[in-house]
């Protein structure tokens, strides 16, 4: 078992080292002093510890002001970085070599509290003739080393006064101050790590192309990404720490569902302010005891979902005007006419016998237009049962009729929004449905069944 050295053993060991270092007792001050440039560079290197330690040094100095003591902070090698004390005391100690830039390591200054504390990695108080060089023997010094989170020495705090002022409590004051500095260093590191984690999380959230927002138990929005702000046409600063009701009117119901152990996924909602549809998924946030403390909401623009589905299903056009083979004057004139109307928003009527290439023409018009990157939806009107035509074209809401799909379903008009809808065999559609279709073509607006 390790047995710690006694105070007298620590002093004796240090004095023996000084003899090996060939330190002379009569030197007027420590052997090594940094140049101004060297000190400035060292201060920059140790800026973090100086910034944290100085407020605690000032608090301790306020307690000791006028008592004949000074406080100084050294780096891990014993170089004095900064000094706080009464002006007359600081000036007097400077004559003995205790000043900024002085090297107080044992190899430079012999046995002294700061140098010995750093070498032995402990807290120590030295007074009078316990110091090696004569010029330091009029002082009492109490020093404690400062460690980082890994336990490595990064500095030392020293309290120095006339030897007549020696008291065990002065070492206790220094040790307490060092503990406060070390705790603040840990806190500072934690805050830095938290900020770094926040930056990573923020960057990840803002790189995602669908909306994300986080809501706490009180319905307060704590985070939102750029995509959500763009989709909802709001500014981040106007929504953070505001009630979620503004963007999610039923947030309380959803939170209660999650707390009850139910899921809330693949729901379709209408954003009332802008009349836009979103696909909604909500996931619970749980603490260590598995209690729901909030929720994360993700939502995608339904139109983008439709476009993605159509891109990888039948909702795309493959033919272009180059695929229409023919060099006759009528065919050349037809192509010119079709190209001239490609970008028109007007409805185009394509007539011809079965098998003459009406869909080829429709796809070519689509691919020559500004809509080519959006959906191309083709539907054979003659193949749909009469009682299903409306639901196929216009879609339906949840619970509209017996057998309706849970959550509702988008119609072909919605799927083709921004693209092209090709109604093949439209003449086979019942006349009453053609009247409804005419109204849609005139108003450019649909209403789902239910």
TrEMBL record:
Coiled coil: none annotated. Residues 324-450 form the Sigma-54 factor interaction domain. One of its GO terms (molecular function) is ATP binding. InterPro entries: AAA+_ATPase (IPR003593), GAF (IPR003018), GAF-like_dom_sf (IPR029016), P-loop_NTPase (IPR027417), PAS (IPR000014), PAS-like_dom_sf (IPR035965), PAS_fold (IPR013767), Sigma_54_int (IPR002078). The keyword NADP does not apply. Pfam families: GAF, PAS, Sigma54_activat. Residues 197-243 form the PAS domain. Signal peptide: none annotated. SUPFAM superfamilies: P-loop containing nucleoside triphosphate hydrolases, PYP-like sensor domain (PAS domain). SMART domains: AAA, PAS. It comes from the Bacteria. GO terms for biological process: regulation of DNA-templated transcription. Keywords: ATP-binding, Nucleotide-binding, Transcription, Transcription regulation. NCBIfam families: sensory_box. PANTHER family: C4-DICARBOXYLATE TRANSPORT TRANSCRIPTIONAL REGULATORY PROTEIN DCTD (PTHR32071:SF57), TRANSCRIPTIONAL REGULATORY PROTEIN (PTHR32071). This is PAS domain-containing protein. The lineage of its organism: Bacteria, Bacillati, Bacillota, Clostridia, Eubacteriales.
């Amino acid at each position: 078992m390790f047995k710690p050295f006694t105070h007298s053993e620590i002093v004796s060991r240090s004095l023996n080292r000084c003899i090996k270092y060939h330190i002379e007792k009569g030197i007027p001050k420590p052997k090594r002093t940094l140049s101004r440039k060297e000190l400035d560079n060292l201060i920059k290197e140790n800026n973090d510890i100086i910034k944290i330690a100085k407020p605690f040094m000032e608090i301790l100095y306020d307690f000791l002001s006028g008592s004949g003591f000074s406080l100084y902070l050294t780096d891990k090698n014993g170089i004095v970085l900064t000094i706080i004390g009464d002006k007359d005391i600081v000036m007097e100690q400077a004559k003995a070599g205790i000043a900024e830039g002085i090297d107080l390591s044992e190899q430079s200054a012999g046995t002294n509290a700061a140098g010995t504390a750093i070498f032995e990695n402990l807290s120590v108080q030295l007074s009078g003739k316990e110091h090696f060089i004569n010029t330091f023997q009029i002082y009492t010094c109490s020093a404690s080393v400062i460690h980082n989170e890994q336990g490595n020495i990064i500095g030392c705090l020293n309290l120095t006064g006339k030897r007549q002022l020696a008291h065990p409590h002065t070492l206790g004051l220094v040790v307490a101050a060092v503990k406060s500095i070390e705790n603040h260093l840990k806190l500072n590191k934690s805050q830095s790590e938290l900020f770094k984690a926040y930056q990573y999380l923020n960057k990840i959230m803002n790189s995602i192309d669908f909306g994300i927002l986080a809501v706490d138990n009180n319905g307060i929005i704590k985070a939102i990404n750029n995509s959500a702000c763009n989709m909802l046409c709001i500014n981040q600063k106007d929504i953070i720490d505001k009630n979620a009701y503004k963007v999610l009117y039923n947030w309380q119901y959803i939170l209660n569902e999650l707390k009850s152990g139910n899921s809330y996924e693949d729901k379709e909602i209408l954003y009332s302010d802008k009349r836009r549809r979103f696909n909604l998924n909500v996931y619970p946030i749980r603490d260590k005891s598995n209690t729901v403390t909030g929720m994360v909401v993700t939502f995608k623009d339904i139109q983008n979902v439709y476009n993605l589905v159509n891109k990888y299903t039948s909702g795309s056009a493959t033919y272009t005007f180059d695929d229409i083979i023919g060099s006759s004057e009528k065919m050349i004139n037809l192509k010119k006419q079709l190209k001239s109307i490609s970008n028109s928003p007007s409805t185009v009527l394509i007539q011809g016998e079965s098998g003459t290439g009406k869909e080829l023409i429709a796809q070519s018009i689509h691919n020559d237009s500004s809509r080519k990157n959006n959906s191309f939806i083709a539907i054979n009107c003659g193949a749909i049962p009469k009682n299903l035509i409306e639901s196929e074209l216009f879609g339906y809401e949840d619970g509209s009729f017996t057998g309706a799909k849970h959550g509702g379903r988008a119609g072909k008009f919605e799927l083709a929004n921004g693209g092209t809808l090709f109604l093949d065999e439209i003449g086979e559609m019942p006349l009453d449905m053609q009247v409804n279709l005419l109204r849609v073509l005139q108003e450019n607006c649909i209403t789902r069944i239910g």
